[in-house]
Design a protein that fits this description.
The complex is a heterodimer of chains A (146) and B (154).
Chain A (H helix, E strand, L loop, with lengths): L3 H14 L6 H16 L3 H7 E8 L5 E2 L1 H10 L2 E16 L2 E14 L2 E16 L2 E11 L6
Parallel strand pairs in A: 1-6
Antiparallel strand pairs in A: 1-2, 3-4, 4-5, 5-6
Helix pairs in contact in A: 2-3
Chain B lengths: L1 H46 L2 H7 E8 L5 E2 L1 H9 L3 E16 L2 E14 L2 E16 L2 E11 L7
Parallel strand pairs in B: 1-6
Antiparallel strand pairs in B: 1-2, 3-4, 4-5, 5-6
Helix pairs in contact in B: 1-2
The chains are: A alpha+beta (146), B alpha+beta (154).
């Protein structure tokens, strides 16, 4: 019966997608909402904003699943004190948005304080009538970098 | 009436199976093409092959270097062709490849040996890139990498 899953995805996803699409403004809003939810350690909001197949890669090159990332945020392993973000660009390709930006993060991981300037790339998919983050990759950069 | 009742669902299933089969075959074929394009793109950078890069890179490319510098397509190709960015070797390992419609996202690791502005260095990066299916081929539109810590000496 496993063949029914991709079969259903191929048939139903385009039908659902045709019902409505996100735009660049709503993609930007979803990105900001994700930062806000992370700052508040709001698991319910993160659950809505992050895709189940999220691939979340930190500036250290280590990657986490959705459950692992939310687990770190809600357990306090990763505790954000301040997040200041800018979105530099958003490209829309049908139901996929690709965004670039930068973020200043003050946080603790396992109690150790960190203050970082990060450049990031995010890929969001329009699913179930909202943008969901599917891919996050980032790198720590010089704060003066443009 | 019995015939109609049994025929209609059966017809739907056959049509659905044909549609999904076509969809899945397209995804499998595009996935293989994307892997090939990724390998070809790394090789074109080592070969400083501007013509190949011209086809493999999207006109709206945003190439984010690990130092935060952002290049467009023409600047990136120019730096490779003039030798200011000279890739001696690139050894990629694709860790994941996902398709979202006409968008492909790859994540991987790469061992890099490069001479930048006359200074040669070797390191490993974690990278992700985003590709678009345009004009019947994959074209890379985003690149981001982060330099990984050096492995401890043995």
């Amino acid at each position: 019966m496993k063949f029914l899953v991709p079969l259903a995805a191929c048939l139903l996803v385009p039908m659902a997608q045709a019902a409505g699409r996100g735009d660049a403004a709503s993609a930007r809003a979803a990105i900001q909402a994700r930062f806000d939810a992370a700052l508040k350690a709001d698991a319910a909001a993160l659950d809505r904003l992050l895709a189940d197949d999220l691939d979340y890669c930190s500036y250290l090159g280590t990657c986490q699943t959705k459950a692992q990332y939310i687990g770190d945020v809600t357990s306090g392993v990763l505790k954000y004190q301040a997040i200041k973000s800018t979105v530099d660009s958003v490209k829309l390709f049908a139901d996929t948005a690709v965004a670039l930006g930068k973020v200043d993060v003050t946080a603790t991981r396992n109690g150790e304080p960190r203050s970082l300037h990060i450049a990031w790339t995010a890929v969001l998919a329009w699913r179930d009538g909202r943008w969901q983050l599917t891919t996050w990759s980032s790198t720590s950069i010089d704060p003066k970098a443009k | 009436m019995k015939t109609r009742c049994t025929t209609l669902p059966a017809t739907f299933i056959v049509v659905a199976a044909l549609m999904s089969g076509s969809c899945l075959a397209k995804d499998n074929s595009r996935e293989a093409a994307l892997r090939s394009a990724e390998v070809a793109r790394f090789q074109a950078q080592v070969d400083a092959d501007g013509a190949a890069l011209g086809k493999l890179l999207d006109a709206d490319l945003e190439y984010s270097h690990s130092n935060g510098k952002l290049d467009g397509k023409s600047a990136f190709i120019a730096s490779i062709k003039d030798g200011s960015l000279d890739y001696i070797s690139l050894e990629p390992t694709i860790q994941s490849l996902r398709l979202f419609g006409d968008v492909g996202v790859i994540r991987g690791l790469a061992k890099v040996a490069v001479t930048l502005d006359g200074k040669t260095s070797e390191f490993t990066i974690g990278y992700s890139d985003v590709w678009l299916w345009k004009d019947g081929r994959w074209q890379m539109t985003e690149w981001r990498s982060t330099r990984l810590p050096d492995a401890p000496a043995k």
